[in-house]
Amino acid sequence: MPKSKRDRPVTLSKTKKKGREHKEAIVNAIRQAVEDYSSIYVFKFENMRNLKFKEFREKMKSTSRFFLGSNKVMQVSLGRSAADEMRPGIYKVSKLLRGDAGLCFTNLAKEEVERLFNEYEDYDFGRTGSIATEKVELKEGPLDQFSHEMEPFLRKQGMPVRLNKGVVELVADYVVCEEGKPLSPEAARILRLLGIKMATFRLHLICRWSPSDFELYIDAPGDSDVESS
After folding, report:
1. pLDDT, tens digit, for every residue of 149-159?
2. What percent of the chain has a predicted confidence (pLDDT) above 70?
3. Shared-domain flag, residues 219 and 115
4. Shared domain check, 165 and 93
5. Helix-strand-coil percent breakdown of the chain, rounded to 5?
6. Where residue 112 sits, what CATH number does that domain have?
7. What is the mean pLDDT of residues 4-31?
8. Could you tell me which residue ranges the Large ribosomal subunit protein uL10-like insertion domain spans (predicted)?
9. Where are the alpha helices (DSSP H) in 47-150?
10. Residue 131 belongs to what H/E stretch?
11. pTM of the model
12. 221 vs 203, 224, 227, CA distance in Å?
């Protein structure tokens, strides 16, 4: 029987990567946005959730445009110093693109942008490595929230469980996670099963730039240098 073409292995190292053309397209799009919108904001994100961010972006679609990705590419687009900046003072924006940051170009009034960003937050399940916001401990005894089919899965997560007359039962107290410590893969799975959400997706405004104004919202390392430049 001939081999199915579907079974052919694919070497991931040979897949096409985003190259120079992609970066140039982003640079051109950002530079065009500088011309099209009246103000620019740098924002940082906490516990990013792509679907939730897409929903937030859709709310502002008619008046704004967002960019996330390589900070270096965004910096180059705006200019990394006073010598190569696109507009006077815009390099200050570039210097604040560090870590989990993005750009928002908008024609909305300052007060409206601040309201939208400050009011938005969404709760979700914590992922592996995120910090637990509370201690979760399960006490010895029956776990009525789980069906008997879940017993093998729970045991694989390290929980000391057994079936007792068709009921999943903890044979000893079990600490799922400790407050302030990173979640293990097993803890993240168990918390999801328990319906306990520990991650809050938030967006924090860092600065605002317009042709006539530059404003810092929160302090960050190096911000004093930007303000005094």
Report:
1. 999 999 999 99
2. 87
3. yes
4. no
5. 35, 25, 40
6. 3.30.70.1730
7. 66
8. 127-196
9. 50-59, 71-78, 91-95, 110-119
10. none
11. 0.69
12. 18, 8, 12
94-to-21, 27, 49, 50, 152 alpha-carbon distances in Å = 21, 13, 24, 23, 52
Per-residue pLDDT band for 201 (boundaries 50, 70, 90) equals confident
170 CB neighbour count, 10 Å cutoff: 17
Residue with tokens 């960019």: 67
| 136-148: average pLDDT | 92
CA–CA separation, 203 and 59 (whole Å): 14
Highest mean pLDDT among 18-27, 103-112, 113-122: 103-112
- For residues 96 and 76, membership in a common domain is answered with yes
Q: By the 8 A CB rule, do 70 and 11 touch?
A: no
131, β-bridge pairs: 182
- Has residue 103 been placed in a domain? yes
The domain in which residue 48 lies consists of 21-125+200-228
pLDDT recorded at residue 8: 46
Chain segment 109-133, per-residue pLDDT in tens = 999 999 999 888 888 888 898 899 9
29 within 8 A of 73, measured Cβ to Cβ: no
Helix (H) and strand (E) counts for the chain? 8, 11
From CA 81, how far away is CA 73, in angstroms rounded? Answer: 14
> For residues 178 and 191, is the Cβ–Cβ distance under 8 A?
no
The one-letter code for the residue type at 45 is F
Q: What is the CA radius of gyration of the chain?
A: 24
